Amino acid sequence: MRRTSEETKATILVAARERFAADGYQRATIRAIASDAAIDPAMVMRYFGNKEKLFAAAADFDLKFPDFTEIPRETVGQVLAAHFLDRWEDDEGMMILLRTGVTNEAVAERMRDIFAAQLGPLIARLCGTPSQVPVRAGLVATQILGMALCRYVLRLPPVVAMSRDEIVDWLGPTLQRYLVE
Fold first, then answer.
1. CB under 8 Å to 18, separation ≥6 — which residues?
2. Are 80 and 171 contacting, i.e. CB atoms less than 8 angstroms apart?
3. How far apart are the two ends of the chain, measured CA to CA in Å?
């Protein structure tokens, strides 16, 4: 049974996400991804060009922010903290970026691009001082990424033991300060 071009591309991306999650960026190979997708490695190269471009496509995701215009301003920090916890726990793509971003410059760049492109505009809408947006976005990222690294990668026992609500209660006020104060 022949697949359409879009079906083939989607199959490759699914296989790539799974392989990058299992093996990390460095150890994952085009050949292994093609094998997982049950296609010839040349097809992976045809659609994506090289491993770096394949990774960029596999790790392209939307942070899926809620509509913050509908959220009371005094709760945006807590809402953002809860949102990111949900995203880290539900999206393997974010875990791939987190795990490999600390050791691979291309992946780190991809992560910076995603956060800048999606977090920056959100903060611009919440912050009254445009010149502070990059700094505020960077500070929000330190909290979100630091918590995720400690909870999901390093698995620091006190952080892993915290409930979702406890993390939101601790992290929310800090994010609130960076977002709107």
1. 36, 92
2. no
3. 58
CA pair distance 120, 95, nearest whole angstrom: 21
Total tally of structural domains belonging to the chain: 2
87 within a domain of the structure (yes/no)? yes
| Residues 72 and 17 occupy one common structural domain | no
Residue 63 lies in a domain: no
Question: Which residues, 6+ apart, have CB-to-CB distance to 178 below 8 Å?
Answer: 77, 123, 136, 139, 140, 143
CA within 13 Å, CB half, 103: 9
Answer for the pair 28, 20: CB distance below 8 angstroms, yes or no: yes
Domain span at 35: 5-58
C-alpha closest to that of 167 among 137, 142, 144? 144
pLDDT digits (tens, 9 = 90+) for 153-170: 899 999 999 999 999 999
Record the pTM: 0.79
Q: What angle do CA 97, 152, 116 make, to 5 degrees?
A: 35
